[in-house]
Design a protein that fits this description.
This protein has eleven helices and 15 strands. The protein has about 400 residues and is α+β, with helices and mostly antiparallel strands. It is globular, with a radius of gyration of 22 Å. About 55% of the residues are buried.
Length: about 400
């Protein structure tokens, strides 16, 4: 398996992408992305578990249930969420018009939106930008990168990844792009994600692989503990690699799933490291838990703790905040058996606390741009990791001024 330099949503055979400026919210930049497959693809998707779901999510769930798709239209700047019947009609209309412009089945067009909640979708602006994007569709990496930039909101950089691998003796590729910087919490994480592959695989097995990959990647990202109304992740498979169609669990399915996990984990880590106002990327690992569920519960509690996250920003080795979060997480924990490490430097060992010399070593770890916080409960074999970041002053400023 090999990661592709500059790889993204156009890396797999059978896909084109483009972007255009619609002035939906942002002036002077592209804010609409279009991804189109040469032919109908096997399709799978995963959406937010928030009971207040945006109009495009409601619409896309119906499309995803059919297991086929050929195009995706996405916009930034307006979430089209909490917009009532009008919002749903706007989502359907943009899909219908896009299908007509592309000459594809309307039931094979996904639509995705991200941005401010409670604002009506400027349909005319979106469709005009879609038409501009259609005229620029390209298979180039540059086109994929521009599409990745178009879906950004508070992101500071585009997020892309692609890998090549062998399946059934054929060279295959998976590539993707995502956006996500704030309002991030497991249960999909707040994001839009678009992944393409040229592997031939049935819709049922594609969905199975996507669920596995999401559990190991996007469901392990925490920035601030808020879960969005618009979380959507789409996966399209063109079959252009020429492998025998994957219809059941097999060596080919395992190879595909492993590669998909690599792409998703890369995108998930990029999201965490680009958290709103983030200055540090932190991996929180809990091991030695009674079971995996306990480990996941504890890791998420630490990753979401505002007190722990602000201490990381301040380079303050306040390990007590980490241990306290584990304690209230609901997992089984006995503090006199527990150890806390920042990278390989211990902060707390079964009742022994860091002295001044040890605290200085911990401070050095906290000066890094990326480090790992590990909690060993010494109660079993359960283990789980979550990707997160610190809370800085900029996080407050970004979210205090988001709609104004």
């Amino acid at each position: 398996m090999k990661f592709l330099k500059n790889g993204g949503v156009c890396s797999a055979k059978g896909f084109r992408a483009a972007s255009a400026a619609g002035a939906i919210k942002y002036e002077g930049r592209d804010d609409v992305a279009l991804i189109v497959a040469d032919k109908p693809c096997s399709a799978a998707a995963v959406f937010t578990t928030n009971k207040v779901a945006a109009a495009p999510v409601v619409y896309d769930r119906q499309i995803a249930s059919l297991g086929k798709a050929q195009a995706i239209l996405a916009n930034s700047g307006c979430a089209n969420a909490c917009t009532g019947e009008r919002g749903l009609k706007d989502a359907k209309l943009t899909a219908l018009v896009t299908a007509g412009e592309l000459g594809v089945d309307p039931k094979m067009v996904f639509v995705a939106s991200t941005g401010v909640i409670g604002r009506a979708l400027p349909v005319d602006k979106l469709l005009n930008a879609m038409r501009k994007a259609k005229s620029k569709l390209s298979r180039s990496n540059e086109a994929g990168n521009l599409a990745a930039r178009a879906i950004m909101t508070t992101d500071t950089r585009p997020k892309e990844a692609a890998v090549t691998f062998i399946v059934d003796g054929k060279k295959a590729t998976i590539g993707g792009m995502a956006k996500g910087s704030g309002m991030i919490e497991p249960n999909m994480a707040t994001m839009l994600g678009f992944i393409t592959t040229d592997v031939a695989i049935s819709p049922a097995m594609l969905k199975r692989a996507l669920n596995i990959a999401v559990a190991k990647s996007f469901n392990r990202v925490v920035v601030d503990g808020d879960e969005s109304t618009n979380d959507s992740l789409f996966l399209l498979a063109s079959g252009a690699a020429g492998n025998e169609l994957i219809t059941k669990s097999s060596a080919s399915f395992r190879a595909f799933t492993e590669a998909l996990c690599e792409v998703c984990v890369s995108l998930a880590k990029q999201m965490a490291s680009d958290g709103e106002g983030a200055t540090k990327f932190v991996t929180v690992t809990v091991k030695g838990a009674r079971n995996e569920s306990d480990a996941a519960r504890a890791a998420r509690a630490v990753a979401k703790s505002p007190l722990a996250k602000t201490s990381w920003f301040g380079r303050d080795p306040n390990w007590g905040r980490v241990l306290a979060a584990v304690g209230y997480s609901g997992c089984e924990v006995r503090d006199m058996k527990t150890e806390v490490f920042y990278d390989d430097v211990w902060a707390f060992r079964k009742g022994e606390t860091a002295d001044e010399k040890q605290l200085k070593l911990l401070e050095k770890v906290l000066m890094k741009d990326a480090f790992e916080v590990t909690v060993d409960l010494h109660l079993g074999k359960g283990q789980s990791s979550v990707y997160t970041c610190d809370f800085s002053l900029d996080y407050v400023h970004i979210n205090a001024d988001y709609t104004t």
